[in-house]
Every structure is written in structure tokens, then in C-alpha cells.
Write a structure and sequence with these properties.
This protein is an alpha/beta fold and 162 residues long. It is built from seven helices and five strands.
């Protein structure tokens, strides 16, 4: 049994204003039933009309944080995926608003393994953020700088020492 078996037939809403990102994510998740949206309005309508297990939301261009509020209220496992909103504040905002994970687009090629880990943690009743720092610490330190955890020491201590 492969780690990604947990993703088989999962219903995933992918929201991004870049068509190539939508297409790439669909290609990376062939085991899932994916639906795409290229705008906030389209995504909002889909969230209201259809059930989803997972939502992958871009932050910029589609009002990702507004969509996060909707998906979190519905109990949908939500991953924030971004290329331009890469800041410690946006990681924390994603966490506090109910996202299940925050992933830089440069890690998108590994989306299936990240989702499998997240869904496995959820199925076991564990925190979906549990391995965030161990998997993305080199990215965070390279992108945010070595002192990024000083912005909110209590939050970062909680996130980095799961």
C-alpha cells in the first residue's frame, strides 16, 4: 500500500488564477477527483454547491483567505498554496484562520505526499501542522531569514516543536 492511497477518490477543489498551476496540480493528483476554479466567485459557488474533502487555495489573485474562512467553516481540509504571499505572517494567518497547511508553490511537485501526510494525520486525530517545520524548515529559513521566528516567538515555538 502506497502512502498516497489515502488520496484515492478524494474530492479536491483547486483554486488559482493561473491556468498552468490548475493544470499542473490536476496532473499531480490523478488519483483524486479534482475540480478547479480560477476566481474567488467561481470557488465560492463551488464550495456552496458541492462537497469537498480538500481545498487547495492560492492566497493572491483569488482572495484565498476569504475562501479559507468558508472552507474552514465547512470542515474542509484546506491547504494554502502560494508563490508570492510567502511571509511568516501569512503562515501564522493561515494557521489561525483554520488552514490545515501552508505550502510554497516551489514545493508543489510534492503535493501528493504532503496531502497524504495531512490526511493521515487527520484520520489519526493528529495535528495536520505537526510536521510543517520539519519538512519546510530549510525553505522557511532561506525565504524568511534566520530570525523569522522572533516575529511571534510563542506561535513559532508551538509550530516548530510539535
Amino acid at each position: 500500500m502506497q502512502a498516497t492511497d489515502i488520496l484515492q477518490d478524494q474530492r479536491i477543489l483547486i483554486v488559482d488564477d493561473e491556468p498552468d498551476i490548475l493544470e499542473t496540480l490536476q496532473d499531480l493528483l490523478p488519483m483524486c477527483r479534482t475540480t478547479t476554479a480560477a476566481s474567488y466567485q467561481e470557488a465560492r459557488e463551488l464550495l456552496a454547491a458541492q462537497p469537498f474533502d480538500i481545498a487547495i487555495l492560492d492566497i493572491m489573485g483569488v482572495s484565498g483567505f476569504d475562501l479559507l474562512e468558508i472552507s474552514a467553516r465547512k470542515g474542509i481540509v484546506t491547504i494554502m498554496l502560494t508563490a508570492y504571499a510567502l511571509t511568516p505572517d501569512n503562515v501564522e494567518k493561515s494557521y489561525r484562520k483554520g488552514a490545515s497547511y501552508y505550502l510554497p508553490k516551489e514545493e508543489m511537485v510534492n503535493i501528493a505526499s504532503f496531502l497524504a501526510e495531512i490526511m493521515t494525520a487527520k484520520a489519526k486525530g493528529q495535528d495536520t501542522w505537526g510536521n510543517w517545520y520539519s519538512r519546510l524548515s530549510s525553505f522557511a529559513e532561506r525565504t524568511f531569514g534566520p530570525d523569522f521566528k522572533k516575529s511571534d516567538k510563542e506561535f513559532w515555538d508551538k509550530l516548530t516543536f510539535h
